[in-house]
Structure formats: structure tokens, C-alpha cells
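Example with several molecule types.
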Amino acid sequence: MNENSLAEIRQILSAVCDPEIPVLTIADLGVLRDIKIVDETIEITITPTYTGCPAMDMITMNIRLALTEHGYKNILIKSVLSPAWTTDWMTESGKEKLKAYGIAPPNPTQAVCDSKLFAEAEAIQCPLCNSWHTRVLSQFGSTACKALYQCEDCREPFDYFKCH
Amino acid sequence: MNIYNAVNSSQSPDDITSTITSLSDGKVDLLLHLADTALILSQRNAAWCGHGPILEQDIAITNISLDLLGQARNFYQYAAKIINEATSVTAAEQVNNADGLLEASEDSLAYLRTEREFKNLLLVEQPNGDWGQTILRQYLFSQYQYLMYQQFQQSSDQQLAAIAEKAIKEVTYHVRWSSEWVIRLGDGTPESHTRMLNALGELWTYTGEFFMPAEYEKKETIGFELDAIKQPWIEKVTQLFEAATLPSPSNMEGVFMKAGGKTGIHTEQLGFILAEMQYLHRTYPNSFW
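Resulting C-alpha cells for the full complex:
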């Protein structure tokens, strides 16, 4: 295996998507951290968005399947926790795809959860009508990585990919 | 000897405990304590699924349950790795072993240990009670867990530090969410206030165990004196209880504190949880979907 195979592997993995948010690839999400070829083994490093993210097992399986389909055999998939995943690692194109899909992307200014109680929720733009007139319904949404908001103008509830 | 075989052989529980304790200076015991505590609270909270007072909070408590399950898995996986290395179970042996029983794994540790081998805090095995009791249990625990993970982030054990660094981001949400609910209910209606007082009566005597170090919580193993986080915890709780118009911890000083969970001496509650949680795996070993 050589540089060409590395490029090909990158190409193959660019088709592997997050099972919960199928419009995002694992590279868009920042879950795919590293691809290396050590001797004859492909070493792939991934990191979970959230500790309990149930999608990780499926992502691991899908990476293996995609590579096996293209004839690659020795595959080692490592999951690392540190440095801990942050929404900063999400690509700009990923954020655009997220919004088009109806999920508000994480704000560029990072309002990470702190211990302040009853803090005013950060302003989140409605991904459907672009209004900033929205309110938080719950810091916990349909998956561990999202919060639940509602737009006060178009009245639609929507998911927000919360900063982390 | 490894944990799976130990559990399934005719050895006495004492032999099992000493076998595991001798591994890595109590590191395995520490990891199992952290894992068991996260797992049992996760299991308790999961029982709210479909029963929460309103949909958003039903989703919140089950999200927290999922976060805790993730933490438990990380600790079990790490413990299994240490056990397997210490008992020199090689990958080849695992594959060659026809019945596949040789390997310690997150599943064998979670599903195939008995009540006396579980090292979770007594607090987390207590029944859900009403919403107030579930909220208060979550707050008392999350505040403790937050301070503890803060310390673990500095650990010389890189894997332990990494698990803590990852999890503390989520625990921050747990602390904030449960704190806000303690205030809403404590300083809410006469009915909600009374219920919070009842919850406090049920749960307070289980909090002393947080700070009573087990053999495996010596400074050499955990990297800090457990006692060092006691005062910060009391200060946080005092502040919150004041906002929630609940009695100050200083008024509850000197009450008898129950302990034992860290060394496997549990209240009658744990057996029932384990029976329910482990039933499927024990009945249909290695099944999954």
C-alpha cells in the first residue's frame, strides 16, 4: 500500500455517513480523526461525539464494510476519547448540509454549557424560516448531541446541534 | 484466572475479590466502582422512559441515562482490558477458545457479576420514587461526579483522564439541569416543596458514602484525597438548597450515614435491579440484536 491507497481510502471513507444524520459524513462531523497505513494495516482513528453515542458501533461497522467492499483486508479501527470531540471540528460544508436538512448547526461563537443556572439561552437561528426569534424547549433533544428549540415566528419545533 | 471464569467456577466470592484486587493495585476495583455506579443510575433513570411528567423532561432524563451508560461502557472496557492483560489472555487464546468464555468484556462485567461483586454507591440503587426524588438523587450525585471527574482529568492514568475529560462536558449539563429542577420544585408549590423534603429525608443519609474512601480509593490509586472534594460539594449543595428553600446541610450534620455499596454490601434494592437487568443476558448468553 502506498500514497495512492491512502487517497483511495480517504475517498471511500468520504461516503461513510452518520447513521442518525445521514446528510453528514463522518469527516464532516469531525468523528474521523486519522487514517494511517502501518505496514500492511489500515489504522483508522475515530472519536465519539458524546460518550454514550449509540451510533459509534454502527459507524465502526460501516467503515469496515466500506473498506472490505473495496478489497481492503487488514483494518484496525481505534476509538480515542482525548482530545474530546468539539463542535469546532465540524466542517463548514457540514454545517451547511445540516441546516439544509432542517437541523440548526452549532453557533460559531461557542456557548458551551457552563454551570450557570437558568442562563438565557443563546440565540439560535431557525433553520426553516431563518428567524432569530426562537426559544429553547429543552437542552436535551432527540439524540444526545442535540437540543430542542421552537421558532416563535413559523412555530416549527427544530433540533439544534448543541455546542460542545 | 480471570473474572469470567471466577464468576462461573466454584470459587468463593472471597477468592474472586482477592484475585481481582491483586490486579493493578486496586485499579480494577476503582474502575468497576465507577462503572457500576454509572450503570445502575443509568438503569434507574431509564425506567422513566415513557413515564416522565412531560415529554421534554422524559427525554432529558433518558438522555442522562444514555450518557451514564456510555461512561459505564468506557470504564468496563478499560477494566476488561486490564484484567485480560493481567491474566495474559491473548487474542489468539480468545479465538481458539471454542465456548468464547475466557475473555473479560464490558458485557461479562456488567451482566455476569453478582450483587456482592457490584461496587456502586448505595444512593444510585435507591428507587426512583416520585419525580422530585429522582431529581434530587440526580443532583446529589451529578454534583459529586462533576467534582470527581475534575480531579480525574489530572490523573496520571491517561485513559482514566481521557474518559473524565470527555464525560465532564456531559456531566455539566446534568448538574445544571438537575440543579434547576431542585430549585423549581423546592421553591415551587407547597406540594412540590413537601415532596422535596420527603426526598431529602429518603436520600440524604446515602450521601456520606461518597467521601468514605474504600481500599481502592487511596490517594495512590485515585491521585487525590477523596476528602478534598467533600467541602466543595457541601458548599455547592448549601448554595443550591438555599435557593431552593430546602434545609441547609449544616442542619443535618452528624446524622448517621449509610455505607457499604463500595465494597459490595448493598441495600435490598440492588438485587431486584440486577435480576431485571441481567435476566436476558443470563438466559440467552451472548445474544444481541
